[in-house]
Amino acid sequence: MEYAEEVIKMSKRGSEFLKGFGTGYEILKVIINAVLDRGGTDDNLRCIIAEGSTLPHQIAELVLGTGKQEVKEQGTPPPKKFSIWKTINLGVGPRTATEIIKDFNKMSPRMEISGLASALIGNPSEFFVAFKELEVNLVIVTVKELGFEDGVCSYQDICTRGIKMGLTLCPPEVGPQLRRQYFGRGFLWIAMNPITVFGGDSYIFVVGTRGGELDISTSDAISHKKESWGPNCPFVFICLQP
What we know:
Elements: H1 2-10, H2 25-37, H3 42-49, H4 55-64, E1 86-90, H5 97-106, E2 111-113, H6 115-121, E3 134-142, H7 155-164, H8 174-181, E4 188-190, E5 195-197, E6 201-210, E7 213-219, E8 234-238
């Protein structure tokens, strides 16, 4: 699968984070290589600079010898073989933000798209469509299945835990493409790098229903630093396992 091949490439020494840092390059290189040596990818590295991440402080405490054991950490379930829930195609259909939004209004059954979802799609620096058609396998994992039995965790915790279990964050295109290719009801949160709009707030896509009609909307839990999700709240990740 082409997407899998691209992600595998990212886990090699060609990480985009090693292409030129200037001052501090050697220090950053050691950290990046340590992550890559342990099978990590650029998605793992992005967690270091994600909003609300405590990793920089933890690294500093380790260097200074002042680090403390994390008492809140819940057990990380070991990597496991996931059952593929659905396979969708990326890089198909309308390609520009205007075309994607118009397409939702023309679809049958009718689909609603919220103003904020339209704004996410309209952010050209963070939302993009795959250059060519490719398939991705999706899995649904609940917050509880990620190891947070009581649902107490942040969005960053959810993403980090999914990656540790062998899953991959979705490119933002998965949100609207899943809504176009999936006609089921209920709500699904897309595990993805949040997109920033409107004064710096960050959002992710949510595939669901509104007023009885199929809908794609957003969650602002990232900007609001939500720390408690329902244990059964379902998140969609990409699974690269054969």
